[in-house]
Amino acid sequence: MTENLDPGARAAAEQKARKAARDASRKTEALDEPGGRKEILPPWEQDAEGISLVDTHAHIDGEDFDEDREDMLARAKQAGVIAVVTFGDTMEASARAASLAAKHENVFAGVGVHPENVYPFTKDDDDRLAAWAKGKNIVAIGEIGLDYYWEKDEEKRKLQRKMFVRQLALARDLDLPVCIHDREAHGDLMMILKTEGRKNRGVIHCFSGSWEMAKELLKLGWYIGVDGPLTYKNAAKLPEIVAKTPADRLLVETDCPYLSPLPYRGKRNEPAYVRITAERAAEIRGESLEDFAAQTTKNACEIYGLKVGI
Ligand code: NI
C-alpha cells in the first residue's frame, strides 16, 4: 500500500503502522493481567496535601491528548504532579514538545529522535534540535537510544547506534542531560555509554535491565527511571531495583500514553498516574509517599535542572 508514496509519506506510514502495533500490544497486555486493585479513587480525587511529584518522562504532544490536554494537565496538578517532562520522539513531535514547554509553566521538554524513528541526520537536523534546545523550559536531549525489540534488521540497528552516538554528542555540545530508551539492547547500550557516552549524563528511562546492569549505570553516574510496569504482577526484576537503588538516583515517570499502571493497564496513560507508580515504589522502599515524592522530585530537579516552585 505504501509503494507509491514519497519517502516522507512512506516514513509516516511506517510510523503509523508501528504505532498501531504498539497499540495492539498495549491492548493484549491488558488481557493478561488478572484482577488488579479495583476500587481505588483516581489519583486526582485523592488528597494531594504535601505531595510534590514530577512525571519525568511523558509524551503529551500527540493526538492521544488532543481532546483533553488542558484537563489532563489540571488532573495531574490535582494529583500532586507539579511538573511534567515531555519528550519528542520524532522531529515533528520535538517541535510540538518544545512549543508545549514554551506555553506551560510546569511543562518541560526534551527534544530528539527515538531509535524507532531514526534516519540519517544532516547538519540541518542537528541545527534544528540545537535551536529548539535553547528554547524555554527545554531541559534535555531525548528520547534517544536503542530498540532491538522492534528493530530486527542489522543495518537499521547500526543506524540506530550511529544516530544515538550523534545525539549524545549534540547533548554534550549543548551541555544538556539525555533521556535514554533501551529495549533489548543492553550490551550495545553499555558499550556506547562507556565509550562515546562516557561524558554524558542523564537518565535510563523505563529501566528494564538487571540489578547488575543498574549497578554499573549508577557507578557511571546515571539516574534510573521507573514506570507503570512496577505495579504489574510480572514486574520481574523491577521491585528489586527500586529497593536497592540509592534514593538520590531514582526517578518516577509514566511514559504516557503508554504503560499505564494498574488498575489502568491497557488504557491510555497520563501524568497523574505517576502517583500510582510512586506509591508502589514508596511501599517497596518502606517510605511514605510524601518523602519518596520529595526525594524523587529533588532528583528530577537536579538532573534536568527544573525550576519548579517547591
Ligand atoms: Ni518514551
Properties at a glance:
10 helices; TIM Barrel; binds nickel (II) ion; 310 residues; eight-stranded parallel sheet; 43% helix; single chain; alpha/beta
Textual characterization of the structure:
The protein is α/β, with parallel strands linked by helices. The protein has a single domain (50-304), classed as TIM Barrel (Alpha-Beta Barrel). The chain is built from 10 helices and 8 strands. The protein has helices spanning 7-31, 69-78, 91-103, 123-133, 154-174, 186-194, 211-219, 238-244, 274-285, 289-304; strands at 53-58, 81-87, 107-111, 138-147, 178-183, 202-204, 223-226, 250-252. An 8-stranded parallel beta sheet has the order 1-2-3-4-5-6-7-8. Helix 3 (91-103) runs parallel beside helix 4 and helix 9 (274-285) crosses helix 10. Bound molecules: nickel (II) ion. The site of nickel (II) ion has 5 residues, from loops.
